[in-house]
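Readers of this paper often ask what the protein records in our data store actually look like. Such a record has a labelled line for the sequence and another for the backbone structure tokens. Nothing more is needed to write down the fold, since each code stands for a local backbone conformation. The record that follows is passed on verbatim for readers who wish to inspect the format.
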Amino acid sequence: MNRGGRRKPPSDPGRAPSRRPSEPADLSADRARALALTPVSRETLHRLDRFVATLLAWQRRMNLVASSTEATLWTRHVADSLQLLALAPDARIWVDLGSGGGFPGVVIACALAGIPGAHVHLVESSGKKAAFLHEAVQATGVPATVHATRIEDFVKNAPAPLDVVTARALAPLPKLLALVYPLLKTGTLGLFPKGRDVARELTEAAKCWKIQASLSPSRTDPKAQIVIVRGLEPKLRCATETDSDHGK
């Protein structure tokens, strides 16, 4: 009984104790599941651990990932990013558009660190998120450059060569293809993780684009797929508008 004479309600033995907002979740089980899905070297794992620690520290101040996904950060975000590497095993120069919380760009850089010539360009227009990316790159020591600029401006002056362009949860496929067209038409491979609406997005994109694409099932989500774009050409009725959008 407390001082006010009221009894405290009995605790529910079947309910797990609630976690205070400032108390970090135990990610060890989810980490193990992620590594089973996408195994990495010990050195890469050390870099990923430093990255995740940096992200969680910043997550208290700003929303880098949805709070509902923090408990499954390793499978939902880290492994989901790592799986892209198997689709372009010989790629060395990557660009991640709208890198935000570092997925997939920083994760890919963690895996490629130590490989001669490997580099990842992280493009992010938000100043706060770009500041986080700078700290993440410094904390992990990965071969990456943060470009705090708009995607359209980066694409106009993109460094060459680029082996792979990727973007995760950035935009629907029709808009995304318009953004990356200047890169894809030079031979850069596009890898774009998509959810359950991928078929609809491809159908919509096909109205304006001739797309050489295939789908690869996601290892982390049975409802998701990765769109692999090997070639892209605007259809005649959309070509004029596309060229105008890119200043040609």
Q: What stands out?
A: The domain at 34-245 is CATH 3.40.50.150 (Rossmann fold). The first strand starts at residue 93 and ends at 97.
